[in-house]
Amino acid sequence: MMSTANQGRDPIAPITVDLARLPELLTALRLPTIARLWAQLAERSDREGWPAARFLATLLELELAERYQRRIQRHLQEAELPVGKSLTTFDFASVPTVNMSQINALAAGGSWLDKGANILAFGPPGVGKSHLSAALGRALVEKGYRVLYTRTTDLVQRLQAARRDLLLESLMDKLDKYDLLILDDISYVRKDQAETSVLFELISARYERRSLFITANKPFGQWDEIFPDKAMTVAAIDRLVHHAVILEINTESYRRKTAVSRAPGSSSTSKTKKSTQDDSDE
Ligand code: ADP
Ligand code: MG
């Protein structure tokens, strides 16, 4: 327990200070940066004759800056983003339908997240939908937002298990903490009454409050295969598109294009290859 020796005293009356207790005090107050840096800074402050206020303010600023960095690190970990997918490694030139300045504006966060608007990215396998969603997610975490990236099928399974264990509400509350939920590959969700109605519930719960970034390789016309019935499909799409940015990425598979241009003697064939939906690697 903390000592309360100084409690209730006139704060400006002379107080007994035990310098040896400083590490303990800083730990109790959860100030690891100050604990690490105070001695070094105190020396400098003494040497340079800083006013006490400057010494104190400097330490507090350092603690706050590191606390912010630690929080971002924590949020990066909890976001479960695929590694190596950032906006700087995304080649916008190869995706003419995606506007770099629009994506950069979205990556700044702000009003679209405040009003729970969505991003829906459509396109065949390999065109960069997952990369783009993860890159945007990473940029937002670095701005201080909370993001969770998940394959839609994984999340649907988690929701389903939670419902079985009567923990759906608490999982929904947990998911509600994320400013952006990235649901990758919604088209892979199996059409199963119990499973996909939890997905619909999630979409409804976030409607106009919390944002979703959904990627799909099937157009809305084929979403009947995702939700249990027509009415639920229509209702889900209706909520998703009400406030949404829709990205259509109908270029050639980036994976195949880079594979083809790496192949010997095929430097120009990549441009002539037609994009099809038969990529086998997804
Ligand atoms: P999708 O999710 O549309 O199937 P991915 O995002 O998984 O496609 O992209 C397939 C691979 O190609 C990934 O390794 C990704 O990083 C890379 N890739 C796709 N598009 C681009 C791009 N425009 N710039 C850089 N890399 C890309
Ligand atoms: Mg993908």
Describe the structure.
It is a single chain. The chain has 282 residues and is of the alpha/beta class. The protein is 50% helix and 9% strand. It contains twelve helices and five strands. The chain has a five-stranded parallel β-sheet with strand order 2-3-4-1-5. α9 (193-206) links the parallel β3 (180-184) and β4 (211-216). α7 (152-164) packs across α8 (168-176) and α7 (152-164) packs across α9 (193-206). The longest helix has 28 residues, at 52-79. 27% of the residues are buried. The structure holds adenosine-5'-diphosphate and magnesium ion. The site of magnesium ion (MG) has 5 residues, from α6.
Write the layout of secondary structure elements.
Blueprint: H1 22-28, H2 32-48, H3 52-79, H4 100-107, H5 111-114, E1 118-122, H6 129-142, E2 147-151, H7 152-164, H8 168-176, E3 180-184, H9 193-206, E4 211-216, H10 230-242, E5 244-248, H11 254-262, H12 269-272
Parallel strand pairs: 1-4, 1-5, 2-3, 3-4
Bound molecules: adenosine-5'-diphosphate (ADP) and magnesium ion (MG).
